[in-house]
Structure formats: C-alpha cells, structure tokens
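Exercise: predict the structure of this protein bound to 2-amino-3-ketobutyric acid.
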Amino acid sequence: MSALRERYGTENVIASDIRMPQAGDGPFEFVDVTQQRQIDVAVRRHGVDAIYHLAAILSAVAEEKPHVAWDVNMGGLYRTLEVARASGCAVFVPSSIGAFGPSTPRESTPQDTVQRPTTMYGVTKAAGELLCDYYHARFGVDTRGVRFPGLVSHVALPGGGTTDYAVEIFYEAIKHGRYTCYLGPDTRLDMMYMPDALKAAIDVMEADPGRLVHRNAFNVTAMNFTPAEVAEAIRRHLPDFRIEYRIDPVRQRIADSWPHSISDAAAREEWDWSPDYDLARTTEEMLASLRRKLSGEEEA
Ligand code: AKB
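Solution:
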C-alpha cells in the first residue's frame, strides 16, 4: 500500500480490508471480497481505475479449509473481475508458485508448462490465471499478474502459507536466537524480498501492453534457498543462531509439490523485470529492520 501511495499519491490509493486500519493514513474502504456489492460500491465511489486484488487464503490454511479457500480465492477473483468488467478498470492479480504441481518440471520451471497442482490453493491459483486470461480475451479487461514465490517481509506478518518459515526464522533469530523449522533442511523454494515484490506488481501494471505476449501469471523470482541455507546466512550476522527441524507433514507435502527454481525469462523479456535483493542483502536488511522494530516494541 505504501509503495503505491508513494508512487501515485496518498489520496489516489484506496486501501481496503475486512479489518479497520489502526491509524488513518489515507483513504480506506471496508470491502469483503465475498460481497460483490461492496467491491462495486468502493470502485464507483472513488472512480477506481485499477484494482490490486490481493485477498486470498494461502496454501497451508487452504488445506485446512478448502471450501472457504475456494469461495474467497475463486469467488473473490470472479466478483472482482465482474466489477472490473462493468466499470472498465484494470486488475492486478497475484498468482503463485503454488499454481504448479508435482508433474511440473522442477528446475528452472518455464513460463508455459504443465500445471497440475495438488493443493486447493494451487487449484484456485491455476484456475484464477485462466479466468484472468479469459476476461482479457473475452471482455477486454486489462488483467495482469505475476506468479509470486514465497515473500519475505519485516512489515507483513506470515499469513498461513507454506513459505512462512522464511519470515518467522528472522523474527525468532532476533528474539530467541533459535528457530524450529516445520520444513526439512533441504527444501528448496523460490523466494523474494517484499520491495522486489512491490516493484514487480507496479512494473507489470505499468508495462507497455504492446510488448506483452503473456499478461497474467508471469513467473518472477529473486532467489531460491533451503532452510539450512537461510540459517547459514543468518549465522554470518548472529554466529550463535541455531536451527532445528520438526517437520509438519502437511506443509512439507505442499512444498515438495512445488518447483525448486522457476525461470523468469518471460518477465525479463517482456517488461524488463530484474530483482534487486539476493539472500545476503535480504538477510542483512531483515535483521537490521527487525532489530529496530522489536527494540522499539520493547521500549513502547
Ligand atoms: C504460500 O506459501 O502459500 C504463499 C505462496 C508461495 O503463494 N506464500
């Protein structure tokens, strides 16, 4: 939100959620994506010309509550696309590496490839990609999107995903000097630091449509690592940091069905995608930001 406000001006970006914001730092609308009328009213009231549709149930929670995940992820997207069709606005939709499955090539996964996900999250993401393509081809809605890997952030807390460990590990390193990881030490997945994710979302929406061969679901990545490797990167700053493993079979099964590394060649070619943060830089920034944030919380 703050990245969009910095770029387009605070008053021009309408935040929305099903939780009221704590501090009023810009225009806000209460919108529940299961209620089409609420989306429609917010879009019309503010003359919205682009929706960043981020509401979704992530992979681990979606396995616990598949019916809710279907309604929120698929229903929420369908209703958003319908509002966009009626009001003529563009839509950014994030897909995920979760849109791939065990029969997808695992290394350097191509942009266009086998997609047979085995999770409810993946089913909604793969179907959502197709729905966005359909709304563009059939109704001319300017839909665009990327397939995000696991996102690492010191602002957004983990929210029920399989890649949450890559955020939790930094918090626990600063707070307790140790972390118990629910994925095995060699589980390799693509990841991205939040500033790169925001850049990807803004850049794909601003891309010259004449250059786009694809529209939705561009593979984007910045790095890939295993829990053992991120622990090693943390130890370069905190030599006493310890990691141990207690595997959660549900999340391990999900992670094992996803690629080890994806190819973002199409995004690089069609809209000049290029990430700024590798594992070393992400680790340095995460630890420094969390040190500041957590010491501020203690003082408060
Ligand atoms: C999750 O783990 O569910 C998400 C994702 C990779 O889409 N972070």
